[in-house]
Amino acid sequence: MSAPEMSPSIQQEVARLAGMPELRAAFSRFRREESQFAQWQMEVSRVPAPPFGESARSEWLADRFQELGLGCVQTDDVGNVFAVSPGYGQRYISISAHIDTVFPATTPLNIRQQGSRLYGPGVSDNGAGIAAMLAVASVLRSAEIVHTLPFVFIGNVGEEGEGDLRGMRHVFQTQHWADRIAYSVIVDGAGSDTVVAEALGSRRFEVIARGPGGHSWSDFGTPSPIIALARAIQSLSETPVPASPKTTFNVGVIRGGTSVNSIPESASMRVDLRSTSMAEIDRLERAMRVSLDHAVDAENLPAAARNPRRAQTVQCEIVEIGNRPAGELAPDALLLKVIRAVDAQLGNTAQVQRASTDANIPLSLGREAIAIGGGGAGGGAHTLQEWFDCNGRDLGLRRILLTMLALSAVGE
Ligand SMILES: [Zn+2]
To answer: How far is the CA of 161 from the centre of ligand 1 (A)?
Structure first.
């Protein structure tokens, strides 16, 4: 079947599914059982899950998967939790939600409800995604919905910041899942109005400059790591970047020095390079490296000229601390047709967006993947004032379930 012919049949299939009695029952459960979903969401948000410290939350999730009667519940060696709803094919549809937060272990997790709103760190990102995944698993079983392709539910670690997508990377480095997951539906945060089908790539570095240090008066002229970095930042900041493909750079953290009257022995900075194009990221990385080389040379030159034999120098070390591959869903991808048909069926309007999510990993491997919200509305992500509004959550849940069932029906 050629691509243009497929969409009307997908639309028909989505309409047929949505009209089935089991689906109608599931949709009404999504409304009726809202208080249970909010309960799970608050409960999971109270379990700390800082980057590289998600094990308590992995355990919590594995217990919920067990309670819901899902099969093959297991946790892999990085802390990703899996559960299966069996079907008939070899290829799986995955639904995943990252379980990590950006908040350090010491953050007070004051999670509370006021009316339809939930408040507290991580309650939306990704409490909303985890709650949506559990809601879908729960209703799938209670409404006794049969699906063709099997589903794998994944609570994955390491999506945020320096987690660098390590959880999802590990899923796709595991032969068993890499061979089987054909379609990935990633639930991240709140909302029903977006489809992330394009993976924003990023590369991050920690740059450490080291020098001999010294007294600000008696050792004046000794090369300074702080000044070397400042020179490099100045030059990096003048690097031209195209508006399209959108490309950005940021020096987000700078540290260093000992005291006001010391020539520093070390200084460091953290640099974030982003683009929708891997070629632009490569170009920016080269520009950053050239800026650093020139900055170090310029900083070392006067001391070398004074004492060519025993010149004291500043040196730079560049450590890659993050690398998220770019990629995108082909315009004729089945997953894109399915979500569009689902949105049309539900009367929902959504925009295709580009972002950095767990979908970067399957997309960069040429697999079909999208990231969508868990319904409702949210705000204040990555702050202590984070909130989630449960109103309209059921639209997001219907959207996820219908997408998975339609994929399962037409994706073999
Ligand atoms: Zn998130």
So the answer is: 10
